[in-house]
Specification:
With 165 residues, the protein is mostly helical. It is built from nine helices and no strands. α5 runs antiparallel to α6, α5 packs across α8 and α8 runs antiparallel to α9.
């Protein structure tokens, strides 16, 4: 069948469909008018997704930067260049510079009594996750960090410094 004949058959079928619909539901074509008038606005909104994509890209870059910096902090903690409190302090400073998308969710989930405790737990969990992902031994280090946190909490000496880094 040639292309012109197929095109004519499709056009005829569409015309018949519109006629049947208009006969069955009079005025339905006029009811489409408001939607058709909003069509240019809708297409401009669809075109506006470039801004959304750019915002998504920017947020993605922030998340990646946070992950890289936190990974470096964890490496320094594992190497003994930082203490638990110093690492927690850096995590807190990092959150001030590159804000978390969900502030406060950690405290609600883990039931921390203070921000200091939450940041120490974040460091411990990030350390455990990073070492597990690298298949490195982590049990003794995590146990030592948890013991240090418990000791600081019991003594009431859990204070994060605002100095440095």
């Amino acid at each position: 069948m040639n292309a012109l004949l197929r095109l004519l058959l499709c056009a005829g079928a569409l015309a018949i469909a519109f006629f049947v619909l208009e006969f069955a539901r009079p005025g339905w074509i006029q009811s489409l008018e408001p939607e058709l008038r909003r069509l240019p606005e809708s297409t401009s909104r669809i075109g506006g997704t470039d801004e959304s994509a750019q915002q998504f890209e920017e947020k993605s870059q922030i998340v990646l930067a946070r992950l890289q910096l936190k990974g470096q902090i964890v490496e320094d903690l594992c190497a003994g260049r930082l203490s638990l409190l110093e690492a927690a302090s850096r995590f807190r400073k990092l959150d001030k510079i590159l804000p978390d998308s969900f502030p406060g969710h950690f405290a609600r989930y883990y039931g921390c009594d203070s921000d200091e405790e939450c940041y120490c737990l974040r460091v411990i969990m990030a350390t455990q996750a990073q070492l597990q992902s690298l298949n490195k031994p982590h049990v003794s280090l995590i146990a030592r960090l948890r013991a240090e946190l418990r000791e600081r909490l019991n003594e009431g000496t859990l204070q994060l410094s605002d100095r440095g880094w």
